[in-house]
């Protein structure tokens, strides 16, 4: 065996394909995914919409940006191929339930809404000019009690047409200490109305009252010219707790009606209860399972459709599709696709499916993220039989990481019919996913860090036993900013190469045990210079070395063992753990991870190999 292969756990030369796959050429073959970190929940909508007037763009809102916790609105220009983004509120939250919703109003201005996860207000900003991401007006707030999931809707008409804002708010009726997950209160569905383009809002109206003690009434929507179609699920709480039924009501200027037009309640008779809503799928039936709504659509005749998940087992979710048959006067409900197991690595949310979505302009088209029998894919499904049968085409097969939470832009373009997230998902607070579905560039021989792109290598890759005999990490590194904190690489937060993490301008190699962190550093780095950098640790003598371009530049003591940050440790390149802040501003290539301490002779051989490989490209 070549000495450079001995103990090699990972080797990422930074060769990536047009899909953003960063290949691992070690025996482990742990490939990574390069891209902009993004996270969102499927109950805050719309997440993406295409608007084509003076410009042709698909707008998308997500939680990400330079810190990974920013509220971001972005636009992909279908003519130029450029991706422009604006941070609307920095460092807002790492919780993906706080992702934003995007409304392109009838006058072409963008309104973006977000809130905390059970926050004290709905927050929003409006662009100062139509189709313009460069400037937004001031942050505005709508005071609430305990709010989540804002969903803005403007029906057809003039620019002055009313804007409706649907959301969940909570009435606190129980003590969180009584619940193992800390949940409290009853989550009801409300709406407000604006008749002045979002400058002011009516008092809230409760639309649906949750059963007492039930944590949330979850909902998704689709709209026609005059009607908002709403599908609901009644949930006791998160985790594996019961989530019951798929329920329906159409909202028409404050009045709720059933699918056949039968009135449910006028605005003066609101709120209704869960029991008053039309039952599309009955979890209480003899063959019923727990269920959770995912997405809605409506056809040109006004017939609504919904895609949802059921849970015969948390390890075997099922996607189902129901559509209103106006001629027969009933709902037609069909199996759509086996979905696979839950996606959350922490094991708390057993009902988190990978996700499904409907084309908002055509309910005969669905997209599903599946993970069945070890095979993961994003699929496009189409029916001409009302859902009884489906043709299937793979949009993305053999992805790196798990594809989750697809979003179909309204009025979508042929080159961008669906967006999704891809990577690793530990929990709502610690997802490690990048945005996928936009047209991508060609092959590149380096990882280009702009402070917000990075590489996810997954969760729980190795444990401390993999490096109990020592460790070495190395890379060719160039940074353009010496004073900004930057992550070159981090493996489980126990092994790190950083710039200016502890000391301004310094390159730092650090190892962490359960109680402390040891650091070897060097301040000879210059902006724009490419250096071959390596950190190595020998547990036999407790010495860790930082080496640069063939020389040892600093030493420190570390007894070990290396302690990773949890059972689902985060492994990333050019970005901090879970693709959050401290992104590299520069380039990175020829990254290696060894489960042994390399020698200075190995270091020089690795440097030559790296430089030769770069020269050959």
Automatic annotation (TrEMBL):
Classification via CDD domains: Sialidase_non-viral
InterPro entries, per database record: ConA-like_dom_sf, Sialidase_sf
Superkingdom of the organism of origin: Archaea
Pfam families xref list: BNR_4
Listed name of the protein: Uncharacterized protein
Coiled-coil regions, chain positions: none
């Amino acid at each position: 065996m070549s000495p450079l292969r001995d103990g090699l756990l990972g080797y990422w030369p930074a060769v990536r394909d047009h899909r953003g796959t960063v290949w691992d050429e070690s025996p482990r073959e742990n490939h990574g995914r390069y891209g902009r970190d993004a996270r969102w929940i499927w109950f805050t909508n719309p997440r993406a919409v295409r608007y084509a007037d003076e410009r042709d763009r698909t707008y998308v809102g997500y939680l990400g940006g330079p810190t990974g916790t920013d509220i971001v609105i972005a636009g992909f220009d279908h003519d130029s191929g450029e991706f422009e983004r604006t941070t609307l509120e920095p460092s807002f939250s790492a919780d993906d339930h706080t992702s934003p919703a995007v409304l392109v109003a009838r006058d072409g201005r963008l309104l973006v809404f977000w809130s905390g996860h059970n926050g004290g207000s709905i927050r929003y900003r409006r662009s100062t000019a139509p189709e313009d991401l460069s400037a937004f007006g001031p942050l505005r707030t709508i005071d609430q009690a305990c709010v989540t999931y804002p969903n803005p809707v403007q029906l057809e008409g003039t620019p002055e047409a009313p804007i409706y804002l649907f959301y969940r708010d909570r009435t606190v009726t129980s003590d969180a200490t009584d619940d193992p997950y800390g949940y409290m209160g009853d989550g009801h569905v409300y709406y407000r109305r604006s008749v002045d383009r979002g400058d002011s809002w009516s008092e809230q109206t409760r639309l649906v009252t949750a059963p007492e003690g039930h944590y949330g009434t979850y909902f998704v929507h689709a709209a026609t010219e005059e009607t908002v179609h709403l599908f609901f699920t009644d949930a006791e709480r998160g985790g594996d707790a019961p989530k019951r039924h798929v329920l329906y009501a159409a909202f028409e200027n404050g009045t709720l009606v059933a699918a056949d037009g039968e009135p449910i309640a006028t605005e003066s008779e609101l709120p209704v209860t869960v029991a008053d809503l039309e039952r599309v799928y009955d979890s209480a039936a003899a063959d019923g399972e727990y269920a959770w709504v995912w997405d809605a659509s409506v056809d040109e005749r006004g017939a609504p459709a919904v895609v949802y998940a059921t849970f015969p087992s948390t390890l075997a979710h099922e996607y189902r599709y129901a559509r209103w048959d106006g001629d027969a006067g009933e709902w037609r409900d069909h199996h759509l696709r086996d979905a696979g197991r839950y996606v959350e690595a922490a094991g708390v949310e057993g009902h988190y499916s990978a996700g499904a979505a409907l084309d908002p302009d055509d309910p005969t088209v669905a997209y599903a993220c599946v993970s069945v029998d070890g095979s993961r894919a994003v699929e496009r499904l189409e029916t001409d039989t009302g859902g009884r049968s489906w043709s299937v085409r793979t949009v993305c097969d053999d992805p790196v990481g798990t594809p989750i939470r697809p979003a179909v832009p309204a009025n979508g373009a042929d080159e961008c019919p669906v967006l999704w997230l891809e990577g690793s998902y530990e929990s709502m607070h610690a997802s490690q996913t990048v945005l996928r579905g936009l047209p991508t560039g060609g092959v590149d021989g380096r990882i280009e860090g702009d402070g917000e792109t990075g590489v996810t290598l997954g969760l729980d890759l190795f444990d401390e036993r993999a490096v109990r005999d020592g460790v070495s990490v190395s890379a060719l590194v160039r940074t353009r900013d010496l004073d900004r904190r930057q992550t070159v690489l981090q493996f489980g937060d126990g092994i790190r190469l950083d710039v200016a993490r502890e000391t301004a301008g310094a390159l730092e190699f650090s190892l962490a045990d359960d109680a402390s962190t040891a650091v070897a550093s060097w301040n000879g780095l210059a902006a724009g210079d490419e250096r071959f950098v390596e950190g190595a640790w020998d547990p036999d003598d407790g010495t860790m070395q930082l080496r640069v371009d063939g020389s040892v530049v600093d030493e420190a003591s570390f007894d070990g063992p290396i302690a990773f940050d949890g059972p689902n440790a985060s492994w990333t390149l050019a970005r901090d753990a879970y693709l959050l802040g401290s992104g590299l501003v520069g380039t990175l290539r020829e990254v290696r991870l060894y489960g042994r301490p390399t020698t200075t002779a190995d270091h020089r051989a690795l440097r030559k190999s790296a430089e030769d490989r770069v020269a050959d490209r």
